[in-house]
Each structure stands twice: as C-alpha cells, then as structure tokens.
Amino acid sequence: MCIRDRNDESVEGIAAVTGNDRFAWDSYRRFVQMFGNVVRGIPGERFEDAIADVVANNIVISGLTRERRGLLAHGIVGMAEATCRRWMADPGTIDHAELAAQLGELAWFGLRGIRTA
C-alpha cells in the first residue's frame, strides 16, 4: 500500500468520524501545506496560487480575460481562507449557516463588481 492510499484512508476516516467531508479534505490540504512549508521550505503562497489557478480555470464568465479570472480566483481563495480562519478561531460560537451566508453574499457582490474586458 502506498502513502497516497494511506492518506486517502485517513481523510475518509476523519470524514466518517466528523460527518464532514469538507473538513476532512481541508484538514488534509492544510497538513500538506504546513508540511511543505515547515519541512520543505515551500512558501504557503505557492499552494494558494496553485489552488487559485484551478479555480481560475473553472471560472466561465463571457468576456473575462485570463488575468481577471486569476484575480477573481485569488479573491475567492482569500475569502475562503479568511472564513476558515474565523471558524477555526472559535468554532463553538459561530453560526455556520450565517458564516456561509456571509461568504456567499461577499462572493456574489464581488462577482457583480467584475467588468468584462
């Protein structure tokens, strides 16, 4: 069994225990990012840039240039990161539905402000 199989098993186990797939995969992503930074000296921004690149390639807005898709993607990744940090700071006192609504509203108003080239 290879290491990747073990990682997949770990993520599935965390998801089963918590009942939350997103939490499990985000924890795994954070572990990989932290390991890369501490052990391998890879700046955390490289991971965020890679995630933003994937997001940018999936944004389909007619007339939006690649550069603007990249800027939008970095904004979305930043909003998601800020949301996770807020939730992790004090998970017991934050209403997850309210936090999700705030993030959705922020993304929606951000998208409405995008002008096509």
Binned strand content: under 5%
**N→C terminal distance:** 50 Å
Quick one: overall form? globular
Question: What is the overall pLDDT average?
Answer: 75
Count of discrete alpha- or pi-helical segments spanning 4 or more residues: 5
Notes on the protein architecture:
By secondary structure, this protein is mainly α. The protein has 2 domains: 1-42; 44-117. The protein has 5 helices and no strands. The chain has helices spanning 3-18, 21-38, 44-57, 66-89, 96-112. Helix 4 packs antiparallel against helix 5. The radius of gyration is 17 Å and the shape is globular.
List keywords for this structure.
globular, mainly alpha, 117 residues, 76% helix
In short:
Helix content is 76%, strand content 0%.
Task: Please render the helix and strand layout as text.
Elements lengths: L2 H16 L2 H18 L5 H14 L8 H24 L6 H17 L5
Helix pairs in contact: 1-2, 3-4, 4-5
